[in-house]
Every structure is written in structure tokens, then in C-alpha cells.
């Protein structure tokens, strides 16, 4: 870029994005480190392309609202269960997202989990740095953006990823701030996940244990995000538009908000509901149901108030070696509904997702027949 100044021509130094990213990553202090240092302007590496916010944003007061499903009585009453299964079917086919209340996990546990996650990110930098890595095979992975080195723009968030099943870490391998809480929360979410997979199986017209028998709940990881307050939220984003690469995601979000779902090409808020959990269908579940259920794109906006804390419980075995192949479920196929995807392993699917990053394109495209 040429800049005219005082009658002479000057050249603005070329922006070296790679060097900026490398220097930032080597601090191992994350976005929180920038905020703690008093940054008043969002560094260029976080600036989103101008078209990032292109889809229409519709306030939550619009005609659309995320379904909220009450699970009260789902185990005790057949009539109640039937109606809940119908609600799950409709929400999973039309939205790919729904919130659940009366899900069996005490509010006190949800609140304590958020407190502990926040405590991890707000502890002394030197204690966090021992977990900072880009090695996805580790049990605990703390970093800023898994695709930081390849994404066109960085997201304004820090994360810690804990692989909890099928091969759980030893207690001493987990960070001290949430060590005991992580095991309790994981056990409760695993139980809830079994119920959700049963309901989804029934919604598909399958036996209640169908998705469990093919190991959809075999793997579970806890992905904890921390979105610090952002001085210029209009320039960046908390999490770029993407669809989850999981079978199922169960999300615990705090009161701040910012999560949005792309529905009918409009961004719809997923408002925080006290005591509720957000459930969304992942790409792998869309694949094995041959598009009967939808994995939809969503994002998280950066915010001025922060920090926002969330915990995404992701049902997927990730990079855990597993020979099982997944393709469209044969019971759901017919002459009029032939398979739309080739078979794949979870490891292959996740590797493709990891390599492409949050680029705005669906991972499913790579596996379509």
C-alpha cells in the first residue's frame, strides 16, 4: 500500500501475518494474556474478513426461537416419553439444535463447573502454560484456536480440551482447578448422553439402543472455552461459523450469551436459559442418518463485557484409533433414499475436520457420494 506523506512516497511495511501468529503463540498466554496486558485494539491477526457478518442477524425477538424440550418424566411415563421423542425428532430435523430442561443434572453442578473452568483460565499464566500445546494426541490440550496456524483469521477465545472417554486421564493429568469436578461432570453428561441417544434412536424409528450399540457414546471429551471481553467486538468473532464434527454436542453456556444458529439463512440467538443445556446434532450423526437429522452452522460473537465461559461436551472418539466404520444406517435407507455418504472412520473424519479448520465449509462435503 502506497502512502503519500509530505510530498514524498512511502511504502507501508508488508503485513507479516505468520510472524505475528508465531510470536503470539509462543507467549502461551492466549487471548487472556492480551487482555491482561491492557490491549485496547484487536490485533490484526484476529480481524475477520468483511463478509463474516454477511448473513442477516435477526434479534431473538423475531418469529424464530430455539426449541426448548422439557425432559421431566421421560423415564417414568410412556405417554410423556412419546411426546418428548416427537419434539426431539422435529427439533433435530428442522433445527439441529434444541435446549433441554429438567435433564437430571443439578443446577449446582452446572454452576460449579463454570466456576472451575473460569478458575483454570484465570490462574497464574505459568500454571496454565504447562498444558499449552498443539499436540492433539495429548489428554489435555490448552491453546488459542486449534486451527490458529492455518485459519484466515484468529478467533477471540482460549480453550482447554480434556479427553475423558474411552480412555480417561489419571486425576493428576488434569489441571488442579477443575480436576475433581471434571470427573463428576463428565459422568453426569455421559448418563444424559445415553438418554439423548435413546430418544434420538426412537425418533428415527430405530430400537432405543441402536445408536449406543454402534458406539456413538463411546467417546466423550470436554471442550472448555473462555471468551475474554473484547475491546472491538465488531472486528473479530468468538468462534467462526462452523458445524460440529461430532455425533452429538451438549453445551453448558453461561449467562452472557453470544451463541447464534444459522436457521433459514438468518442468525438466531440461542438465549441462555437458567439450568438449561443446549444440544446439537453433529456432522457424524447427520452422516449416519443420511441427512434425516441436520448438523447446522453456528457461531459465537465476541463481546464487550466478558469473560464468557462455556463447556461443550462432545460425543466423539476423536483421534482415538478405532477400526469401526460409519456410513448411513441401513435401516434408514430405501430405493427412494439411497446412501448419500461413503463409509469412514471417526479418526479419518476428525482428521479432515482438523486439517481444514473452521473455514466455513462443511466437513460432510468431503464424504458425499
TrEMBL record:
**Gene3D superfamilies hit by this protein:** B-lactam Antibiotic, Isopenicillin N Synthase, Chain (2.60.120.330)
What PROSITE patterns does the entry give? FE2OG_OXY (PS51471)
Keyword list (alphabetical) reads: Iron, Metal-binding, Oxidoreductase
One Pfam family name from the record? 2OG-FeII_Oxy
State the needed cofactors, names only.
Answer: Fe cation
Q: From what superkingdom does this record's organism come?
A: Eukaryota
Coiled coil location:
none
* Domain called Fe2OG dioxygenase: residue spans: 213-318
Molecular function GO labels: dioxygenase activity; metal ion binding
* Recorded family membership: Belongs to the iron/ascorbate-dependent oxidoreductase family.
Question: What's the protein name?
Answer: Fe2OG dioxygenase domain-containing protein
Q: Which organism is it from?
A: Hibiscus trionum (Flower of an hour)
Amino acid at each position: 500500500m502506497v502512502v503519500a506523506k509530505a510530498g514524498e512516497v512511502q511504502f507501508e511495511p508488508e503485513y507479516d501475518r505468520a510472524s505475528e501468529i508465531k510470536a503470539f503463540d509462543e507467549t502461551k498466554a492466549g487471548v487472556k494474556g492480551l487482555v491482561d496486558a491492557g490491549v485496547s485494539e484487536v490485533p490484526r491477526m484476529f480481524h475477520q474478513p468483511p463478509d463474516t457478518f454477511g448473513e442477516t442477524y435477526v434479534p431473538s425477538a423475531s418469529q424464530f426461537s430455539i426449541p426448548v424440550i422439557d425432559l421431566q418424566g421421560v423415564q417414568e411415563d410412556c405417554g410423556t416419553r412419546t411426546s418428548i421423542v416427537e419434539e426431539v425428532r422435529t427439533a433435530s430435523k428442522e433445527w439441529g439444535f434444541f435446549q433441554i430442561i429438567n435433564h437430571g443434572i443439578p443446577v449446582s453442578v452446572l454452576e460449579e463447573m463454570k466456576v472451575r473452568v473460569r478458575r483454570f483460565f484465570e490462574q497464574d499464566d505459568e500454571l496454565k502454560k504447562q498444558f499449552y500445546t498443539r499436540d492433539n494426541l495429548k489428554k489435555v490440550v490448552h491453546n488459542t484456536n486449534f486451527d490458529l496456524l492455518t485459519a484466515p483469521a484468529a478467533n477471540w477465545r482460549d480453550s482447554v480440551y480434556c479427553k475423558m472417554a474411552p480412555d480417561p486421564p489419571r486425576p493428576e493429568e488434569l489441571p488442579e482447578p477443575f480436576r475433581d469436578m471434571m470427573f463428576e461432570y463428565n459422568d453426569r453428561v455421559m448418563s444424559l448422553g445415553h438418554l439423548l441417544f435413546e430418544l434420538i434412536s426412537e425418533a428415527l424409528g430405530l430400537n432405543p439402543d441402536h445408536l449406543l450399540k454402534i458406539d456413538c457414546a463411546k467417546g466423550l471429551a470436554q471442550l472448555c472455552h473462555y471468551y475474554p471481553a473484547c475491546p472491538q467486538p465488531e472486528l473479530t468473532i468468538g468462534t467462526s461459523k462452523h458445524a460440529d464434527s461430532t455425533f452429538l454436542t451438549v453445551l453448558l453456556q453461561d449467562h452472557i450469551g453470544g451463541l447464534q444458529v444459522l436457521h433459514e439463512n438468518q442468525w438466531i440467538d440461542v438465549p441462555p436459559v437458567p439450568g438449561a443445556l443446549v444440544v446439537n446434532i453433529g456432522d457424524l450423526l447427520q452422516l449416519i442418518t443420511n441427512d434425516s437429522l441436520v448438523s447446522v452452522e453456528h457461531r459465537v460473537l465476541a463481546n464487550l463485557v466478558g469473560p464468557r465461559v462455556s463447556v461443550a461436551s462432545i460425543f466423539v472418539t476423536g483421534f482415538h484409533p478405532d477400526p469401526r466404520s460409519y456410513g448411513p444406517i441401513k435401516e434408514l435407507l430405501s430405493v427412494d433414499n439411497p446412501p448419500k455418504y461413503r463409509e469412514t472412520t471417526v479418526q479419518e473424519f476428525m482428521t479432515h475436520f482438523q486439517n481444514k479448520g473452521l473455514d466455513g465449509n462443511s466437513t460432510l462435503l468431503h464424504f458425499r457420494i
